[in-house]
Design brief:
Helix 1 (3-35) packs antiparallel against helix 2 and helix 1 (3-35) runs antiparallel to helix 3 (63-70). With 76 residues, this protein is an all-alpha fold. The protein is elongated, with a radius of gyration of 17 Å. It has 3 helices and no strands.
Length: 76
């Protein structure tokens, strides 16, 4: 396996994990409000808080293909 491919795959998965953790952190506040029976923010705000989590999951699923595409010129 190409070392550039491995490095690109690691970096993409690291960024995806960062997005996912950030999205989960944003949603934890609303979860605590929901569990304490207090009103949560509107649907638009909640949808914006879910976006980083979805981006992270999408990046993680597509990481292999994206790393392959980025390093196709480095193949020997």
């Amino acid at each position: 396996m190409n070392p550039y491919f491995k490095a690109a795959l690691f970096l993409i998965r690291l960024i995806a994990a960062g997005f996912a953790i950030f999205g989960i952190t944003l949603l934890c506040g609303d979860l605590f409000l929901l569990l304490s029976h207090k009103p949560i923010s509107g649907r638009g705000t909640l949808a914006l808080k879910v976006l980083p989590l979805l981006i992270g999951l999408l990046l993680f699923v597509k990481s292999y293909a994206l790393a392959k595409h980025l390093t196709r010129d480095f193949d020997e």
